[in-house]
């Protein structure tokens, strides 16, 4: 999956120069006084942020779904159980659509780097070449094997068909790692030598060895798995809330919920690691994340609250004295750099970054709490030998529905922290966003067009996914036979929607005889 | 030959693959757009069935070329992004709509509007994309793109004819490829005659457009025209032989070899253009030498591409072999 969540400028449209809380009159004055480039920078940032957010929302499924499919199709192959088959077929169809949207929106991003940030690409395209090229190959690989997977039901023996998921899942995962490495380099640009704004040498491997690469990439990878698990769990939790408590729904819920809830505590550890790297490599970003103005020891940690750039204070937050110093340096005497260390023009917008950071941490904590509660219930039920182990009461199901949106929101908020926290730089300490932006005048039109096009496509996609998600499988007489007898694939469950009951037209999905296409 | 030239050759290879594979997918969309008469539904089903498993892999060749360009020749990517923004943006709209409309039609089951609406979107987008890419290629040869004047590439007659040639070329490829797909099963055999006529018609149109393009090339892109008549000539000959050969083979109902010949006809144009373009990337604005990334980075890219291709090509061969015959459309 082409997952280019990253490159670029921030996901916010807001002009960072305008202090939050400033009156509209003041904002208008500032806008008028600002260099004309400011408006074009904002538009370019808005477009890039929107394109990235759109891409991320679909690309995460391209990373996560193949791993879930490996499990469900593997179970089907071992057991011949038609419920596993039905789940696999439904998810494969959703995967096909989501992958295509992820692919085209990723293509848009690869062009947008040049169209919106020509100076950035002109200067650092070479330095970022290796991760992008490798990502291109990973995506290529995924597309090739996906073609075999989606259309190979009748042409490949069942085990081979299942095995094509390995290259798909591995290349989807690798493309996440490659593309996040490129973003990590923008955060901590190492190994590049420049003379008069010209790159004279750049270590090709620098994006992979930069300290931020591994924690950032793993953080995104686990996040993608959590989003997938949460969305899957949500679909089946909704079905169960509507009274469809059959095996199909229970298994779908289980696979999704276990994925998202297993990821949540893991994400705490990786996120902590990522934040420590930020503290060392991008202290201003950490200051913006925590809304810390003054450099010094005994730095407090403020939960929630809104950063006021004029006073340098966090309003309405819960302040825990010394905690930030203790977390970062294990001692209240540890000095933490604040926003005041940089001139006003070089500071990220702490209002947005702190809000985004606390949203991510808040959502993540809620997921961890839910994870712990579910774990307690499961352990108690296991000890008592009461099945099913997963709690499926109304409130538990409602919480399960929320895990998908919560994970997705946390990912978007996390990217806002990464990108917004790097501002005003596009390549930290080396190139400003305003230096990188295009001078084209038509980007307002481009943004408007992108907005309309993407919203239209997203609406259509939402309708299609809803149709796929609604209802259960309808098992017909033509039930699948255990795959051990040969690559026999039948029309079944999952191809039919409960809403209409009519078979959904899928190329290559309707045959009843194995190898029918030969 | 230094590393930058080697990378350039690899990019031309990628571009050729894109033109021959994804080009045919776009061309199939053109035929979807103009399909009429009682055979139209059958033609559209054949087109959808032959695209299904391969179009996404074919599409990635473009990403490969774009990534190689911004990694290996970053300055040129900056120039292209700053001068060809309009044709490229419209090509992107086409790419996005083509891809999403295809899967919405295939998997939507009418949940997001009738399938034939998405079919129309797919067809129109498939026509717009090669046109815009052709126009962008022409502007790289003429150097007519200017910062601050996004419409310049679309005002040039040379660019417009080049765009039309790209559409005709992809349509020709698609018609020839589809002949073989239609001949694969008895259920689609009745479509062959219509497809043969389309192959012939698009070949004639493409030939006429190519003839019209030559004087415009001299007029608007004299630098490239000069090199085209010398360096480009062998490729032009290959292209012309391929085109004529494809028609002869179609006439004799030898659809497999006809594919190869049609591929040569289109590849010859790409190669002739590439040879004539060298060493300029965008004529008058940026050259290979000026745009190249530091040699260490290009070497790393070449190594990555070598390893990547070694892994990728067997997978691609497998894909094309498994789906050598399209799904029998009647079976759905």
Low-confidence residue ranges of chain A = 1-34, 474-480, 484-518
Any idea how many domains of chain A? 1
CATH class of chain B: Mainly Alpha
Name the strands of the widest sheet of chain A in spatial order: 1-2
Oligomer: heterodimer
Termini gap of chain A: 29 Å
- Please tell me the overall pLDDT of chain A: 80
**How many E strands of chain B?**
2
Helix content of chain A: 55-70%
User: If classified by CATH, what would the architecture of chain B be?
Assistant: Up-down Bundle
Order the strands across the largest sheet of chain B as they lie in space: 1-2
Structural class by SSE content of chain A: mainly alpha
- Strand count, sense and closure of the main sheet of chain B? 2 strands, antiparallel
How many helices of chain A? The count is: 16
Helix content of chain B: over 70%
CATH topological fold name of chain B: Formate dehydrogenase/DMSO reductase fold
Low-confidence stretches of chain B: none
Q: How many domains would you count in the coordinates of chain B?
A: 1
Order of helices and strands of chain A: HHHHHHHEEHHHHEEEEHHHEEHH
Gross morphology of chain B is globular
Question: Briefly, what is this?
Answer:
Chain A has helices spanning 24-33, 36-79, 82-116, 118-124, 129-151, 158-163, 165-187, 206-209, 213-241, 247-281, 283-290, 323-329, 350-384, 394-420, 433-436, 443-469, and strands at 192-195, 198-202, 301-303, 306-308, 313-315, 318-320, 425-427, 431-432.
Describe this structure in words.
With 518 residues, chain A is mostly helical. Chain A has one domain. In chain A, 63% of the residues lie in helices and 5% in strands. Chain A is built from 16 helices and eight strands. Chain A has helices spanning 24-33, 36-79, 82-116, 118-124, 129-151, 158-163, 165-187, 206-209, 213-241, 247-281, 283-290, 323-329, 350-384, 394-420, 433-436, 443-469, and strands at 192-195, 198-202, 301-303, 306-308, 313-315, 318-320, 425-427, 431-432. In chain A, the strands form four sheets. Chain A has a two-stranded antiparallel sheet with strand order 1-2. In chain A, strands 3-6 form a two-stranded antiparallel ribbon. In chain A, a hairpin with a 2-residue loop joins strand 1 (192-195) and strand 2. The radius of gyration of chain A is 24 Å and the shape is globular. Chain B has a two-stranded antiparallel sheet with strand order 1-2. The mean pLDDT of chain B is 86. Chain B is mostly helical and 332 residues long. Chain B has helices at 3-34, 40-51, 55-72, 74-83, 85-107, 115-142, 152-155, 157-183, 192-220, 222-230, 233-251, 255-277, 288-291, 295-322; strands spanning 280-282, 286-287. Chain B has one domain: Formate dehydrogenase/DMSO reductase fold (Up-down Bundle), CATH 1.20.1630.
């Amino acid at each position: 999956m082409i997952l280019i969540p990253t490159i670029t400028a921030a996901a916010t449209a807001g002009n960072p120069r305008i202090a939050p809380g400033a009156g509209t009159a003041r904002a208008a004055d500032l806008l008028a006084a600002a260099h004309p480039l400011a408006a074009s920078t904002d538009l370019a940032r808005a477009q890039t942020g929107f394109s990235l957010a759109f891409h991320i929302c679909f690309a995460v499924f391209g990373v996560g779904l193949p791993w879930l499919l490996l499990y469900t199709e593997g179970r089907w192959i071992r057991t011949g159980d038609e419920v596993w088959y039905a789940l696999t077929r439904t998810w494969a169809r959703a995967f096909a659509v989501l992958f295509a949207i992820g692919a085209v929106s990723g293509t848009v991003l690869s062009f947008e780097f040049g169209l919106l940030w020509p100076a950035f690409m002109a200067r650092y395209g070479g330095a970022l070449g290796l991760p992008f090229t490798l990502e291109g190959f990973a995506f290529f690989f995924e597309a090739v094997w996906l073609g075999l997977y989606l259309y190979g039901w009748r042409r490949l023996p069942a085990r081979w068909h299942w095995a094509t998921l390995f290259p798909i899942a591995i290349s989807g995962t690798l493309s996440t790692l490659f593309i996040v490495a490129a973003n990590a380099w923008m955060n901590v640009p190492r190994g590049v030598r420049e003379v008069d704004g010209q790159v004279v040498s750049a270590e090709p491997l620098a994006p992979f060895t930069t300290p931020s690469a591994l924690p950032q990439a793993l953080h995104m990878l686990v996040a993608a798995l959590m989003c997938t698990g949460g969305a899957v769990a949500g679909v089946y939790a909704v079905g169960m809330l509507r009274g469809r408590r059959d095996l199909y729904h229970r298994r779908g819920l289980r696979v999704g919920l276990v994925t998202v809830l297993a990821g949540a505590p893991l994400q705490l550890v990786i996120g902590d690691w990522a934040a420590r790297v930020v503290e060392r490599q991008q202290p201003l970003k950490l200051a913006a994340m925590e809304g810390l103005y003054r450099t010094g020891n005994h730095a407090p940690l403020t939960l929630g609250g809104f950063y006021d750039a004029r006073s340098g204070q966090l309003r309405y937050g819960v302040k825990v004295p010394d905690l930030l110093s203790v977390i970062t340096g294990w001692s209240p005497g540890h000095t933490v750099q604040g926003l005041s260390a940089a001139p006003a023009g070089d500071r990220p917008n702490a209002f947005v970054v702190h809000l985004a950071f606390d949203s991510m941490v808040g959502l993540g904590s809620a997921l961890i709490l839910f994870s712990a509660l579910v774990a307690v219930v499961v352990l108690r039920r296991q000890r008592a030998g009461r099945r099913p182990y997963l709690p499926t009461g109304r409130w538990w199901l409602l919480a399960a529905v929320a895990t998908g949106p919560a994970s997705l929101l946390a990912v978007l908020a996390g990217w806002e922290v990464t990108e917004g926290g790097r501002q005003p730089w596009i390549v930290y300490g080396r190139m400003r966003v305003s230096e990188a932006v295009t001078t084209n005048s038509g980007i307002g039109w481009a943004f408007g067009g992108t907005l309309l096009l993407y919203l239209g496509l997203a609406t259509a996609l939402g309708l299609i996914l809803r149709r796929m998600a609604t209802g259960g499988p309808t098992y017909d007489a033509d039930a699948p036979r255990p795959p051990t007898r040969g690559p026999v694939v039948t029309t079944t469950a999952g191809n039919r929607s409960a809403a209409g009951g009519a078979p959904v037209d899928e190329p290559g999905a309707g045959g009843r005889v194995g190898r029918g296409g030969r | 030959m230094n590393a930058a030239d080697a990378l350039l050759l690899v990019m031309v290879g990628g571009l050729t693959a894109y033109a021959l594979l994804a080009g045919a997918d776009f061309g199939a969309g053109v035929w979807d757009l103009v399909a009429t008469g009682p055979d139209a539904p059958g033609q559209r089903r054949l087109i959808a069935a032959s695209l299904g498993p391969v179009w996404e892999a074919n599409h990635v060749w473009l990403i490969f070329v774009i990534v190689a360009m911004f990694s290996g020749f970053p300055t040129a990517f900056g120039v292209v992004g700053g001068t060809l923004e309009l044709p490229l943006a419209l090509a992107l709209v086409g790419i996005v709509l083509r891809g999403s409309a295809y899967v919405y039609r295939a998997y939507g089951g009418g949940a997001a509007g009738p399938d034939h609406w998405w079919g129309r979107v797919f067809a129109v987008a498939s026509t717009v994309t090669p046109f815009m890419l052709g126009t962008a290629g022409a502007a790289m040869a003429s150097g007519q793109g200017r910062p601050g004047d996004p419409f310049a590439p679309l005002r040039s007659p040379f660019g417009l004819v080049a765009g039309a040639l790209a559409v005709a070329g992809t349509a020709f490829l698609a018609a020839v490829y589809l002949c073989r797909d239609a001949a694969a099963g008895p259920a689609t055999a009745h479509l062959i005659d219509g497809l043969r006529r389309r192959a012939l018609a698009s070949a004639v149109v493409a030939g006429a457009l190519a003839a019209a393009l030559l004087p415009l090339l001299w007029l608007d892109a004299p630098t490239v025209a000069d090199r085209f008549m010398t360096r480009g000539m062998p490729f032009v000959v290959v292209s012309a032989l391929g085109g004529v050969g494809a028609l002869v083979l179609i006439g004799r109902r030898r659809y497999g070899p006809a594919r190869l010949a049609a591929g040569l006809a289109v590849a010859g144009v790409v190669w002739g253009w590439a040879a004539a373009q060298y060493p300029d990337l965008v004529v008058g604005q940026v050259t290979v030498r000026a745009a190249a990334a530091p040699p260490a980075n290009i070497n790393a890219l070449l190594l990555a591409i070598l390893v990547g291709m070694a892994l990728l090509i067997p997978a691609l061969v497998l894909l094309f072999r498994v789906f050598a015959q399209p799904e029998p459309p009647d079976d759905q």
